[in-house]
Amino acid sequence: MDDDQPVASSLSKRKRTPLTAGLAGLADASSVQAYHAMMAVGVGSGALAPQSSIEAALTPERLRLEQEQGLFNDVYLLAPVGYFVLGFDTTILQINLVGADLLGVARHNPQQMHFRSFICARFLDDFDRFVRRALNSKEVERCDLQMTRARHEQGFAVTLRASADGSGQAFRVVLELAEGKLAALERSEERFRRIVHNAEEGIWEIDAESRTTFVNPKMAQMLGYGIEQMLEQPLTAFMDAEGCAILERNIVRRQHGIAERHEFKFLRRDGSELWATLATNPIFDPDGAYLGALALVSDITARRESSELMWQQANFDTLTGLPNRHMFQDRLRQEIKKARREGLFLALLFIDLDGFKQVNDRLGHDGGDSLLVEAARRIGGCVRASDTLARLGGDEFTIILSGLDHVSSVERIAQNILDNLSRPFALDGDSGQVSASVGIALYPSDASDPEALLRHADQAMYAAKNGGRNRYSYFTPDLQLAAQARLQVALDLRLALAERQFELYYQPIVNLRTGGISRAEALLRWRHPQRGLLSPVDFLPFAESSGLIVEIGDWAFRQAAAQVRQWQGGLDPGFQVSVNLSPVQLRGDAALCQGWLEHVAALGLPPRSIVIELAEGILLDEAAPVVERLRALRAMGLQVALDDFGTGYSSLAHLKRFDIDFLKIDRSFVQDLVNDSGDLALCEAIIVMAHKLGLQVVAEGVETAAQCALLMAAGCDFAQGYVFAKPMPAAALDALARQGVAALPGG
Asked: Which of 38, 132, 452, 508 could form a disulfide with 447 if both were Cys (CB 3.0 to 4.6 A apart)?
């Protein structure tokens, strides 16, 4: 029999099957009475069960479970009478197959039609009173009236029964045609044949041994078989192992008269997967013996695939395929519960890749992504399948090592990770080199809740990074105290900005040819309410790690610009002030540089009035934002000085590339300067090289007249240090510049 053969003939051929008690038997008067009984208690367990089974199955706990599982309305879908769930304004919220057929509306009611609109006009008052009684009574209310599909069509007599819904937000109505028993039976059988044949859902009937006794054309089409090919086949013939296991667990529940809804994975004839929900109702004979079940089958393959994709995206990192932060946090909570229950400890490893930023800047995001994928693979090879490896974001990974009985296992794994990550990475014809800093926190000794354990592992990771990188470090209470101290300093710094506790001191830069002071370096100080005047070494590291250095640096730039404007008016029109710039500021918002340019212009300052001092290591940072910021500063007309020259790894190519104006010789070369020292030779070489490149040279940390004389003899242009003056407030420097420094050696 092919899929197009009329269902009516199939029904007549299979009178010997439970279908007699199923589809065709739905029109039996006893079944209608069973629905009336179900209305009396507010819900039913299955349209096909006899009255005794219904009464036995209806318990408060049973009703609660069915409502929670979303089974309530599936019970009525194939009822032999019209069944409706209505809003208080009679909007049709849900409707079964017979109800939709009787009123000629779509079952999902896209037009949001009102049930009252189908009541004949002369019965509207009766209907309204009937609804009010139903909503205010605990009993089932009955009303005989006439309905019509359309206002101009002839009405038909019906009996309505209604009761309030347990949710308090709707009520239920059963519609039964008022016609003779035989006529009702014949009409019902004809209607059900039509409904089953044209149903949008699959209908599948099985016997007590779970063998197929009936399917409608839609069901056969969904699986790609002909109807006859499915008959007599066990349900398991169309399932994989997963579906069979679910089926076995639920057969017993069906035999006890419990309506079920489950998701199953079927196998189509072509081998593809069909995910479907089965809303099943048990079938009993008049004596209550289990005959089988009738299932309404809905294809949810597309919805499930979409749900699986959404779940995957919500819980797994798209680049590496590892659990993401959300999944990691859930697993950490579960593993801590398990460790607490079993009396074991677990270790949390927090891994940060050292040098990843440089590789990413040099090779681009594609190269960086390739490195992260390979790093994830290498780390994964160091842990057990039962452990959780997650990527939190960027170059940060975490590992949950559970079920451990001694710490040595943690150390072995951590060292193995370090060894594997320190090997070079082959990246599409290029190579990259990174290492790792690993922080380790233990449950329960370091923390007893997930948030604290993660925080402590993070602190231990930073301890490893500050300790030289490419190593692991355990969390200790001292790290926690240090973290709390950092947090407090960050809070104090923010308060200092708001309350104007910062000050600028200035150290004069002396012209070694004239002895005049026409330059100064602005140096930040913090007048702390409790600790007094603090130098940058006491707070700048905290300002950089918290990001506040951007705001503090912006304040310092504007303050220095205002001060140099005063000195140009009172001391020297060409006076310059040097302002130190942090690498964090260079990587920040480009609008900052633009704001400085506008501020300088508003003050009427020549841009060359400000010299930006950069640490030598910044030249090695090839990140695009850093290069762009430096070029923007030069384009503004600001001059650039390279601070602490000689202590880093910058090359002559870097000096040329970044268009430097001044080299500042580091104090480490000046402090031991004597006639026959190697430091003197280095200083002379730096000065000669700088002059050849068109740069001027400033010596820092000059503390003696002898040092000053040697630098002058070597041709150094400027010097600053305690031999001239310590950093001082602006007013003191103003007075010193007017007075002039003591005579230079040999002057």
From this structure: 452
